[in-house]
Hints:
Elements (H helix, E strand, L loop, with lengths): L10 H7 L2 E7 L6 H9 L12 H12 L6 H14 L3 H17 L2 E8 L11 H17 L5 E9 L4 H17 L4 E7 L11 H9 L3 E6 L6 H8 L5 E4 L11 H9 L4 E3 L1 H6 L11 H6 L4 E3 L11 H11 L4 H11 L7 H15 L5
Parallel strand pairs: 1-2, 2-3, 3-4, 4-5, 5-6, 6-7, 7-8
Helix pairs in contact: 1-13, 3-4, 5-6, 9-10
Amino acid sequence: MATASEGHVSEEKFCKLLPKVELHAHLNGSISKETMTKLLARKAHLPQDQQPDTQALQQWTDIVENGKAVSLDACFQMFKLIHQIVDDTEAVAMVTKDVVREFAEDGVCYLELRSTPRDVPQTGMTKRSYIETVLKAIQQCQDEGIDIIVRFILAIDRRNSLEAAEETIQLAEDYRAKSGGVVVGVDLSGDPKVGDARQLIPLLQKARTAGLRLALHIAEIPDQEAESLALLNIPTDRIGHGTFLHPEVGGSQGLVAATENHSIPLELCQTSNFVGKTVASFDEHHFKYWFDKGHPCVICTDDKGVFHTTLSKEYHLAMMTFDLSRKQLWQLSERSIDFIFADDDVKQTLRKHWTNERSKLQL
């Protein structure tokens, strides 16, 4: 785990040295420029008609290299490119190891990665080999001494069928039992404009009964009150984004009450929401609404590669935008331990580490 240095440091350096927990990181969205370059090089020998889509590559350049704000739809288009180049187990292994290492280098001590298992018949990759490759890569990182605790959440893509969702939950149940505690839960994500997630509720309840934890994308876009309320009342264990829950942005007091009554933490991703244009500016981000209420908030990256960010940058952004003190950032980081999906032994290990690091940061 990252170790803090003594003495006075800048705010940016403080955020880098701060021990951190990342709870909302999509594996394929976290691919860095460096890893993307390696992945593209693996496809350089292919005929022109099998090369990655040039329009998607240009979108990737606009978002990642130029920091251009684009629509949420354009952000989802990015994953079409990523799926074209992460299409076999060798690529999945490379991505997983690079992503874990990069988070560790950024001072992240505990990481929950999430991803939708994929079949790619052309390369022989199955959903099981996809999951097993991710788990093996996580273990290899540990064997190589990369000092970070990693857990894995299997994601249901709401664009897919009920049968696919049921299969994902069954896979999560299977690998929860055989992964030694690495597989911890289920995510619901994908294009929020597609489908009605209420049809998935019986399956999600089944997953929860089986001991899997739920981290569900909820209220990413406006006008989803009925769906959002139903998902909150399962209840979910954590909320992804929750951008349009509260009345000031078109949500409702009923959604706020459900969130508060169940004490559901929010995974908040500032840069993602700004670049994807679901918030107009950083200072209008819903972090402030929930933070001011004292509600559990966890600062996250979402897709650090697609949005060219790091968790340290997200902490610094919150600090500068909302005038947070170093002590407040520390409390946000430390409190995040309470909301991880790992067991109490892991939580205790993390709390001891935070205690050891606190004095080094002169808090």
